[in-house]
Amino acid sequence: MDLSFLSGAMSLQGNSEIQSAEMKEDQSVALLKLLSGLNNGETLLSTVIGEKDGQVQLKLAEGIVINAKPEKNVMLSPGSNVFLQVQKRADNTIALRPLYQNNNQENTAEAALRAASLPLNERALELVARKMEYFNPIDRNSLIASYREINEHPEVPVKYIVDLQNMGIERTSENINQYKAYMNMENSVTEAFGVIEETMVSELADSFAGDAAGENSIKLTDSLIKFADNLSETNSVFVSRDEVNELINKMDLSGKEPVNLKALSEENLKADAGNLEALSLIPDEENNDTTGVIKTDSYEPRDVLKAFLTDIKEAALTGNTDKLRDLIKDESVTRLFNKTFSSQFYLNEENIDSKQEIKDLYRRIYDGTNNLINALNESGIENANLQAPVHNLSENVNFMNALNNFVPYVQIPFNGEAGRENGELYVFKNKRGLSDAGGALSAFIHLDMDNLGPTDVFVSLAGEKVTTNFRVSNDEVLNLIEANIGLLNKRLNERGYSFEMDIAVSEEKKTPIETVLDMEKGKVLLSNVTFDARV
Q1: What confidence tens digit (pLDDT) does each residue in 368-379 have?
Q2: Helix (H) or strand (E) holding 219
């Protein structure tokens, strides 16, 4: 973990900034340990213990003391409390952001708690601060209801409870865990399917390892056959005839009879023979008309996977399990699983802009995860290694569905040139309409790419005037955008728009969902896109 936050700026709410003072080595280690054990969004309670040379001393847990230099108009008197929120950044640095900026807010929180007859403890004070950030009511009934919820989940950060309340999402353990994952940027559908695929191959292979082969091996294989049987035809990714023949040869060499793979291959050959007449319908290339074209050398991955798994099961039923583990871990088999998942649960790059393709993708994701869960449950298998990531993905999809009641949101796993990639799209409409009183339309776009890092773009459209503010992570990215911004300017001018731009390096980094929450009032978020692109 990067320790730069110990000597660098720590971003603050409002117009103040903290510079951490030089610390003794043991205090630095203690602070690092304290912060690394917290999740993004959690808070630390600090107390102002003194003031010297224009700086205030803040005492944290474990006796850790940091010095803060507040800017003008920020009053921090000894004895007052300051909540510091942990913000873990993409570059492995950590920022601390206070929720209390001055004594007036603290006094308001204490008064509200006394009026509601609630204790003046740390979580209660933070609850009021969080609700005030959203301009939510802090009357007696509202505070009592919210305090009851934070007591029902004593291990959950107060922020998570209040954020979910604000979004109208039920505070179940599943939703809380998913929100925690979103706050820590651990919610990628692309990565989830990658884990499930790798675990599926690994668990299936290991189930046939030595003396372990038996009833559970056959049950697991049967569950995966049911899973493959319920997959949809997509015509997006194909297994070639050469790849099928390679699988057949590998099984033959292992002493297993690939009856179902051979039958699939022969059926395809018969279909080819019947299509010879249809092939004559293919027009010459000059006309660029593909009506009548028929694929004769490829297979749907789900069909090949089902045939392969059925051959594995039949080999196991005959007691012929020798070499099955090595066969399943062969590159030809892992490639088959990879193509099956890519065809079912990832869009081809050219289809990313199709609403219908995205809808169809999520229908396959929803059905596929549920079918796999049901198949495993019906077989009576208890395989935590496989079931855990499948259940987590299912909960993620359900959380996305709940989040859509607050802000339309979807993740888009897709097959790009560099392999599997992931995109995120938020669409936020202000309840008062798409424009403010002056007729301006505001938008926020968040990009997070391997080469550029996190980049925020704030866009305002007033008539034919487009104003953009770029906030980037370092000077190198700033220079790259400045060198290429002329392309954007040219395209906008061609469409009749004038263009103004401001660009700066920003230290403050927020997760996309935090930005959505912050922009809920008075702004319009059109899209928030994150691409995990590898070049």
Answers
A1: 999 999 999 988
A2: helix 215-229
